[in-house]
Design goal:
Mean pLDDT: 88
Structural class: alpha/beta
Radius of gyration: 20 Å
Largest sheet: 5 strands, parallel
CATH topology of the largest domain: Rossmann fold
Strand content: 5-15%
CATH architecture of the largest domain: 3-Layer(aba) Sandwich
Number of strands: 5
CATH class of the largest domain: Alpha Beta
Length: 242
């Protein structure tokens, strides 16, 4: 069963968990099913403005600590018009450590009528403690649209496959001067490689070299986002797998 159908069936059967993690790169799929879920769970018709429902708090950006306290107050209230108080948090992966710690305390003592939906990609940027309290529903797509800049980065990956190791390391040295650009580049590479991975898995199987390259790209991107790892070394680790 696909993830959207799974969630809608859970709502129909009134067997919802108290907190969900919608992981994966297919954000539009997540938002589409969430809008339909909100209509069903809040007993609203299709023409109603679900986004401003009294029992729904929809946080569009990663919440700072003050916003998490607002979430705590909202979750402590009794539903006003429907069976649930529902909290949706987009971009949950970008929450700072203090915000995650504050949110964890809320998730540890959920109210009986409170539902949480956290959207995160990659989910590993959330603490293990938070992830352990969420039911993970993965949404992945092999056709994620890239921005013009990301498309250029993806084309760069194809070019690098055709050059010598020495030329690849020179590329890594040059790009490592701007860590933020490297993070964006690795994200574009992940999307391109994941699409290729999905296509190969449906056809003749995934080569071990492609799997290794995807894993190293994901690892380098994650480490650059969360640690002080050396940018050049992280890139070289990826380029060795080309």
């Amino acid at each position: 069963m696909n993830p959207s159908a799974f969630l809608l069936k859970a709502a129909e059967q009134q067997r919802m968990s108290h907190a969900y993690l919608l992981s994966g790169n297919a954000k539009e799929q997540k938002l589409t099913v969430l809008r339909e879920l909100m209509r069903r769970l809040l007993s609203e018709d299709k023409d109603s403005m679900v986004a401003i429902h009294q029992d729904l708090l929809w946080v569009r950006e990663s919440p700072a600590i003050a916003r998490v306290q607002e979430i705590r107050r909202f979750a402590s209230l009794t539903p006003a018009q429907s069976p649930f108080r529902i909290i949706v948090i987009e971009e949950a992966q970008d929450m700072k450590e203090a915000s995650q710690a504050a949110l964890l305390k809320i998730l540890e003592e959920p109210g009986a009528s409170v539902l949480f939906f956290l959207l995160a990609h990659p989910a590993q940027l959330l603490s293990a403690a938070i992830r352990s309290r969420l039911q993970d529903i993965p949404f992945f797509s092999s056709s994620v649209e890239l921005t013009k800049e990301q498309e250029e980065y993806a084309q760069e990956l194809s070019r690098l496959k055709r050059v010598s190791l020495r030329a690849r390391f020179a590329f890594a040295k040059e790009k490592a001067e701007n860590a933020e650009n490297v993070i964006s580049m690795l994200e574009a590479w992940q999307n391109r490689l994941h699409a290729l991975f999905m296509a190969r898995s449906r056809e003749s199987g995934v080569p071990s070299s492609l799997k290794t390259l995807l894993e190293r790209t994901q690892e380098a991107w994650f480490m650059l986002r969360t640690t002080n790892v050396n940018t050049r070394l992280a890139m070289e680790h990826v380029l060795l797998a080309l």
